[in-house]
Amino acid sequence: MPYVFSREEYERRVAWYTQARFGLFLHWGLYAIPARGEWVRSVERIPNEDYDPLLRQFDPRHCDMRAWMAAAKGAGMKYAVLTAKHHDGFCLFDSAYTDFKSTNSPAGRDFVREFLDAAREAGLRAGLYFSIIDWRHPDFPHYGDRNHPMRDDPAYGNEGRNFDRYLDYMHAQMRELCSNYGKLDLLWFDYSYDHLRGEAWRATQLMEMVRALQPDVIIDNRLEVSGEGFGSLAACKPTPYHGDFVSPEQIVPPHGLLDAEGRPLVWESCVTMNNHWGYCATDHYYKPAPMLIKKLVECVSKGGNLLLNVGPDATGRFPDQALDILRDIGRWMERNGESIYGCGPSGLDKPDYGRITRRGDTLYYHIYENTVGPLPLFGVDKDQIASIRRLADGSEAPLSTSWVHSDYPELAFADLGPDPVLPDPVDTVLEVRLRAPSDR
Ligand code: GLC
Predict the structure, then answer these.
(1) Which homologous superfamily is 346-439 in?
(2) Cβ–Cβ contacts within 10 Å for residue 164, how many?
(3) What three-state secondary structure class fits 190?
(4) For 44, which of 10, 34, 104, 254 is 20 to 30 Å away at the CA?
(5) Given this model, what pLDDT does residue 440 score?
(6) What are the tens digits of pLDDT across the range 296-312?
(7) Which own/partner pairs from 67-70 qualify as long-range (CB within 8 Å, at least 24 positions apart)?
(8) Ligand 1 touching residue 88 (CB < 6 A)
(9) Which of ligand 1's atoms lies nearest the C-alpha of 27?
(10) Is 239 helix (H, G, I), strand (E, B) or coil?
(11) 7-342: CATH homologous superfamily?
(12) Does residue 277's CB lie within 6 angstroms of at least one atom of ligand 1?
């Protein structure tokens, strides 16, 4: 049955995702052993014969997927995405089509299955990242490709390479993942470039198979583009393999994203905690938790999700810095998650003291820095306001009646009390409930 885009079906499919807002990205595989990031093969021009032996060393005894999911849940994350296979071709699942897989390593484990079981047990939605690029497969372009580890070596010419045979392999593995691991909530394909996009991947055939096996799964836009580009749904010309969400990478878009007809687009910023997706032992440049909390608020205030990445190490543990950051984010989310989940743009200008998120008739004013005197609640009339509460403890912050703002009668001001130091040094959230229109 040819795919016909249905906006109603699409909005039903993505409803959990735009409600969730915050997820964990997990980049993990053999590249955790060299510990120089997931592109180490490409950056250092490592041939198969020098990389393959890592398989014999892969034995992450401390990998406890339940602990990973507990850390994600503790951070307030609602979904998780694990690299089932990255560009190096190493499979964290028991694929029948290759020996280059974790079940053939000393670990002898199907980590995709363990991950999906643990995520579901923790009540998280679960997705798989799947690289459509495969630097290890003999039929994938080598010499002259933009990224292949052997791209500069004429000895790795492409005579005899049969890309269709590679696509048969790639599609077969996607069929395995969609058939053997239960319900998948999300597939994160990565990524299209140069001429390798869309039907070059036999993307319609791929998605017909995926949708037949996983009718509710949502997919990113990287069968068409990459972290750059928006895709056919944004152009209002959806292909059968259109992304369900746009996937800006290592950036929060300057503003909310709209399609060609002005409809808000579903999007997700994927962001590393340090500067690497895969574990990098020397990369200590971790973004502080307060910064990441504000980036999450920024994404939601612009109508997007944040997919925050952790690269577990070769023992199967999260780096300590990552665990500390997840814990700090979780402490804030435990008190303030209502201002994130199911929220989106407020339709109001960003106040200079912070940001605003909204869900229906409730506005959340995120206060990063206190004001001198009462706080202006831009965008709402005094008579619209039913209540003003500090979200973290439910305490009332009354409407101010102070003379100091008598020159601005059109504005509502909240009285935050005499303490110039905000209760939460990172983001103090005011919940402002508006009267239902019938009550105004
Ligand atoms: C880019 C990187 C890839 C990473 C992905 C995550 O495509 O090349 O390594 O997995 O971004 O978004």
Answers:
(1) Golgi alpha-mannosidase II (2.60.40.1180)
(2) 9
(3) strand
(4) 104
(5) 60
(6) 999 999 999 999 999 99
(7) 68/26, 68/115, 68/118, 68/312, 68/318, 69/118, 69/119, 69/121, 69/122, 69/124, 70/122
(8) no
(9) 10
(10) coil
(11) Glycosidases (3.20.20.80)
(12) yes
Burial of 293 (0-12, 13-18, 19+ CB in 10 A): buried
Phi, psi (degrees; rounded to nearest 5) at 301:
-65, -20
Residue 411, class by beta-carbon neighbours within 10 Å (0-12 exposed, 13-18 middle, 19+ buried)? Answer: middle
Atom of ligand 1 nearest to the CA of 38: 9
Name beta bridge partners: 292.
none
Token pair of 416, please? 């935050």
Ligand 1 contacts CB of residue 147 (under 6 A) = no
Q: Which residue has 């299955």 as its token pair?
A: 113
Q: In angstroms, what CA-CA distances link 166 with 97, 122, 132, 247?
A: 11, 36, 10, 25
Q: Which atom of ligand 1 is nearest to the CA of 191?
A: 7
Ligand 1 centre distance from Cα of residue 129 (Å): 10
Q: Which two tokens stand for residue 374?
A: 């009462």
**From the alpha carbon of 222, which atom of ligand 1 is closest?**
7
Containing 376, the helix (H) or strand (E) segment is strand 375-377
Question: Hunting for tokens 């036999």 — which residue is that?
Answer: 202
Q: What is the mean pLDDT of residues 316-332?
A: 98
Q: What secondary structure letter does DSSP report for 233? A: T
In 3D space, the residue among 159, 136, 125 whose CA is nearest the CA of residue 18 turns out to be: 125
- Amino acid found at 338: E
62-108 pLDDT per residue, tens: 999 999 999 999 999 999 999 999 999 999 999 999 999 999 999 99
Domain ranges, ordered by start, for the chain: 7-342, 346-439
- Residue 218 and residue 243: Cα distance in Å, rounded? 8
SS3 326: helix
Which residue minimizes the CA distance to atom 10 of ligand 1? 277
User: Ligand 1: which residue has its CA nearest to atom 5?
Assistant: 190
Query: Does pLDDT of 438 surpass 80?
Result: no
Are residues 80 and 72 in contact, defined by beta-carbon separation less than 8 angstroms?
A: yes
Q: How confident is the model at residue 206 (pLDDT cuts 50, 70, 90)?
A: very high
